[in-house]
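Narrative summary of target 7.
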Amino acid sequence: MPKYFTVLLLMLLSFTVRAQTWEVGGSVGASAYIGDLNTNNIFKPSGAYGGVFVKRNFDRYLGLRLNFIYGEIAADDSKSSIEQFRERNLSFSDQLKELSLTLDFNFMSYIPEAGKNKYTPYVFLGAGVTSYAPRTIYNYREVSLRNLKTEGTAYGTRTVVVPFGAGFKYNIGGKWTLGAELGYRYTNTDFLDDVSGVYKAFPTPNSASARLADRSREVGAGPAIVGSQRGDFNPKDFYGFFGLTLSYTFITSKCYY
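Modeled conformation, tokenized:
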């Protein structure tokens, strides 16, 4: 996947500048996660994110944006308002690194400084790849969960993602644009949080894998029954970012007006 994005970027660089502009910028804000430890609150912040992007604007409406985003997501059953979750007592944190390519569409004709409109709403859709590594705190130490196979399942270090969302941008002066954006990522994994299906049996009950698979005993609610529900049975996890963007557009003398 990284090679795929490199090729696409080189293709963009090879295009002529006629009727096109370059745009570079960054973004900051909050990250959100929807999965087995947060099943329904799509706006619940669970960490922070920051990113950079370079964009090729083909005309007043369409642009292709290459993004790199670093974000953190986390959830903790012990802080849940649902008693069943508190008794399950699982927790995780994850550092996400996303490389994605999105097609942006402006609803209004927009060129900073040169165009007639100073603002526009927009939507975007694309594809990308994200690396992830769920971890948790156990005995006051941070522990990586992937290699422990807490559900007896091996999963990778990366997942394909489909970014989608919407935003609003405003020309604050000159070639500078300030925006607000909300976007989510459909992923191809159910293990961003290391939780997916049912409780498994372990040959060594006191192993780290067994202890971190079932943490209900730490709060006096276990042990969990082998084969009983551990996750929410939804097939995939989601994550998202909502925050502010700031960008600068390079408009050439041959650009569209």
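Residues 2-14 form the longest helix (13 residues).
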